[in-house]
Design brief:
The chain has about 160 residues and is mainly alpha-helical. The protein has one domain: Arc Repressor Mutant, subunit A (Orthogonal Bundle). The chain contains six helices and two strands, in the order H-H-H-H-E-E-H-H. It starts with a helix and ends with a helix. This is Restriction system protein Mrr-like N-terminal domain-containing protein.
Length: about 160
Amino acid sequence: MNIDEFYEQVQNSGLRIEASSYKKDSEHLLDNEALFQLPLICLIILLMAKDRRKPRIPELGQLVGESLEQSVPGFKGSAQHVGWSANLRVRTIKAMTFLENCKLVEIQNRKGKLEITHLGKKVIDKAMSNDNDLSYNLSKIKMAYRNILVSKQLKMELV
């Protein structure tokens, strides 16, 4: 049977598929802007979760923003202050939700810190293992994250 015969047979048989019980679940849909930025934010979160010093959940949005500010040349010295961006914080929460649903990270409620899973480690290790722009930029973001943590630690010791 070829494709034309198939369509003719289906049309003549009066076959109907009822889709009235189909309910569109728009709760988890993302807009176009988020689709381009969420993968990068997810990778940044995985980088932070893999580090020895795990980020606290309430600080995650600001840490992502500050890491981007320090590592992306377009944001260095900018008046935009990405670390304080409410839009970035909302997207960071969406990225966290995605990572948690995919079992790439876990949130330890007792400690309030982010933990990476074995699968999450495999994903970020694969992204970092290639010799390309992505792994280079992720390395810069990782260094910026560590510098932020060291800077905060030094400030705490001075107080």
